[in-house]
From TrEMBL:
Species: Actinomadura soli
Domain of life of the native organism: Bacteria
SUPFAM superfamilies: DinB/YfiT-like putative metalloenzymes
Pfam families per record: MDMPI_N
Name of protein: TIGR03086 family protein
Residues covered by region (Disordered): 168-201
InterPro entries, per database record: CHP03086, DinB/YfiT-like, Maleyloyr_isom, MDMPI_metal-binding
GO molecular function: metal ion binding
Record domain Mycothiol-dependent maleylpyruvate isomerase metal-binding: where: 22-139
Length: 201
């Protein structure tokens, strides 16, 4: 089975929920005075990164409801005065939206490709890998461990392998891929595939 067929026939929802737990457990360690720190994502402070993930959750939830084509659906993230509570609320929103979604439903994801749609199975995999890697972004920013389970890393590597090279730039979720040593741990290879240096501090 080729990689794309495997991704299209995999139900990523259980993995997505666990990735959400990983992300939220990291965000729970963020203190207010950390929000202005720079992150591994160029041009984003920690506040901007957390807001981005909330916006992504809301956008994917809108897409699952058939209303994802509007870019405004992907721009409304708000941390309020409690970033962890806001992140948990948006995570619950997208989890509920994905729950009963047929995996062959077509979702509009204008931030990835304008004017086209993606099968829900693939869209959920994109949301999943976002959570796993943004959990590292937050962890690296606040200097706490990032310890995704082995199966989360394995599945993320498969999704990362199909992320196109175009559209990677400062201000985007993923930068151009970096080289990783052949003997690098899987976690480090995942980060490098998505434009992150594992040694970033």
């Amino acid at each position: 089975m080729d990689l794309l067929t495997e991704l299209l026939t995999t139900d990523f929802r259980p993995l997505d929920r666990r990735a959400s737990d990983l992300y939220l457990s990291t965000v729970a360690q963020v203190k207010p005075d950390m929000l202005t720190r720079p992150t591994p994502c160029p041009d984003w402070t920690l506040h901007g990164l957390l807001r981005h993930q909330i916006s992504q959750d809301e956008g994917f939830a809108a897409a699952a409801r058939g209303d994802g084509a509007r870019l405004s659906a992907w721009r409304g993230g708000d941390l309020g005065d409690d970033p962890h509570a806001a992140s948990r609320t948006s995570a619950d929103l997208v989890t509920r939206a994905f729950a009963d979604l047929p995996l062959d439903a077509e979702l509009a994801l204008p931030e990835i490709r304008e004017g086209g749609t993606f099968p829900a199975a693939l869209a959920i995999s994109f949301h999943f890998v976002d959570l796993v890697v943004h959990a590292w972004d937050v962890a690296a920013t606040i200097n706490v461990p990032w310890e995704p389970a082995e199966d989360l890393v394995t599945a993320s590597l498969k999704v990362a392998a199909i992320v196109p090279d175009d559209g990677r730039a400062p201000g985007e979720s993923f930068a151009p891929k970096l080289d990783a040593p052949p003997d690098a741990p899987p976690k480090d290879r995942l980060l490098a595939l998505l434009g992150r240096s594992p040694s970033w501090r």
